[in-house]
Amino acid sequence: MANNTSLGSAKEGKNDEFYTQYSDIEAEMNAYVEFNPDVFRDKTILLPCDDPEWSNFTKYFASNFERFGLKKLISTSYAKGAGNKQITIFELESPIFDQDKHETHGKLFTLTRDTNGSGRIDTDDIEFNGYLEGDGDFRSIEVTALRDEADIIITNPPFSLFHDFMDWVAEGKKQFIIIGNINAIKYREIFPRIVKNEIWVGVHFNLTMEFIMSEDYELKGKAFVDSEGKKHGFVPGVTWFTNIDHGTRHEMLALDTRAHNLKFNKILKSRLTEKFGVSDYPMYSNYDAMEVPLTECIPSDYDGIMGVPITFLGKYNPEQFELLGMTGDVDWANNECSFFIPPSIDIQKKCKTINKTWRVQKVYVNDENGLPLIPIYDRLFIKRKGAK
Question: What pTM, to 2 d.p., does this model score?
């Protein structure tokens, strides 16, 4: 991880304008089209903060406008974004080009028709429709009006504004395909909607992705400059979030029995022995649930509640499993979780004295002294559908 760009540091420094590569967009979108060939047909797609000169989202959907049967493509740019430092050819060749407004105002681009008589609609037909009244911030009245016009919102928003962006999308009740970080799963604004199946992860989940970075990006680790002078960096934990269906979401996870996992899975046996000093799946101290350290080791014959890594979401099929909740939320644990069994106040005080970071809403397994002091990473609570 040390060789990768950190989303956390990007958020702190607001160095979070990462430009998605065409191939990564294509790979994700193909999955939706394969599942439903008409997923984009007759739809208006909004690409907020996606300058056509920089944004591969605009280039991709413009190139596939006819193939997808799109109704309209709308792109807006943000005046304070790194991409705005360069004037797009669409803007420069327009009779309404204004150098002063270029530096302070957002821009509006649309694609609806064959403007050059080539017989097809593609990137050459993108139209510069003029300058926005404001700087192009997605929260502005005018960009929000474009959101309301659109059917689907697709983009890679600044990671530091992911909270705000998702709230903005939800407010508009729109379909979306958006890039974020795997840690967004734990956000209070996101996880309850995942439980309700209002949001799910895309086809490509928890990846280290290569992005084109802004000019002021500081090269480090494996980052490099390509032959065109563009900076590239690698970002871990990248995850697509969506509310549009795809085939991966309906794939059944192959499961083996508890006994077979314990007998034949060497990684599982090693984890149980080294971490807990046991040879069987342990139960948690403060939740009536069983620890499953690996998604591949979810037993097919266990009917109770299980705690699994958050990476399980990449394999989550709502037809196979019920998602119940997640560790770390004290309000949910106290008020909604029927299987939360907090230790006594005296035990809690003792644990906090021994471990300053101990929190009752996290998940633990008892140590050799019978105290809930063996910490577990964040866990999702699940149950097999149809389990008794």
Answer: 0.90
